[in-house]
Amino acid sequence: MLEEEMQEASPRAKNQMERIQNAVSRMNNLIRDILGYSQLSRKTDVYRKTKLDNIMEEVLADFDLILEEKKGRVEYADLPVIDAIPLQMVQLFHNLISNALKYSKPDVPPIIVISSTILASEEAESLELSSASGSFHKITIKDNGIGFPQEYAQKIFNIFQRLHGKMEYAGTGIGLAMCKKIADNHHGAIYAESVEGEGSVFTVILPEKQQKSKV
């Protein structure tokens, strides 16, 4: 209503109104992401046999428009079937793909390649992952975006952490923290490797079987 009343207002007043609207939008996004993060701590979610190829189909449906606009593509095939909380898998891959698209180069079509291999036992030991969970799957999400200095590879998974200003890239700084929380919930791990200007590789380690009860 106030905005309608200000149609004939001065440019300064209109600018102030726009700033208020932007601040409200950022706060709405922040509240939404904080609620999403807090819900990851629920103990009532059940692990189910989950085909990650099906999860990717669901996730990519949300990115049809932006991929068309950016002339980008996401490549994946033969992702594993694991014991997982399906909704959290959707959140995990949605955040990682969204992150790759957000930090794509403005003049280069984004290409995101997702692949999976069985984790070597020595690497599982180095990551201090429990052998009681059996085999682990190593899933990599590689992009050709702007990348970041490797010195920030751990810092980016901290909640509210941003490497760029809010005017450069939208976001609340919670997305990658959610990814880490989801990996922890599944008794796995996540880490990133990057070269500034050359893209990034996010690696998610997830066990094939969960030790606790599942359906």
Number of strands: 7
- Low-pLDDT residue intervals, each spanning 5 or more residues: none
Quaternary structure: single chain
Overall residue-averaged pLDDT value: 83
Strand content: 15-25%
Task: Give the count of helical stretches.
Answer: 7
What is the alpha-carbon Rg in Å? 20 Å
Q: Helix share of residues? A: 25-40%
- Category by helix and strand content: alpha+beta
CATH topology of the largest domain: Heat Shock Protein 90
Instruction: Identify the CATH homologous superfamily of the largest domain.
Output: Histidine kinase-like ATPase, C-terminal domain
What top-tier CATH class of the largest domain fits best?
Answer: Alpha Beta
Shape: globular
Order of strands across the main sheet: 2-4-5-7-6
Distance between the termini: 51 Å
CATH architecture of the largest domain: 2-Layer Sandwich
- Largest sheet, described in full? 5 strands, mixed
Q: Provide the domain count.
A: 2
Q: What is the H/E order?
A: HHEHHEEHEHEHEE
Structural account:
The protein has helices at 2-5, 11-39, 52-60, 64-70, 86-102, 121-126, 175-185, and strands at 48-51, 73-76, 81-84, 111-118, 136-142, 189-195, 199-207. By secondary structure, it is α+β, with helices and mostly antiparallel strands. It folds into two domains: 1-39; 49-207, Histidine kinase-like ATPase, C-terminal domain (Heat Shock Protein 90, 2-Layer Sandwich), CATH 3.30.565.10. It has a five-stranded mixed β-sheet, with helices on one face. A two-stranded antiparallel ribbon has the order 1-3. A hairpin with a 3-residue loop joins strand 6 and strand 7 (199-207). Helix 3 (52-60) crosses helix 5 and helix 5 (86-102) runs antiparallel to helix 7.
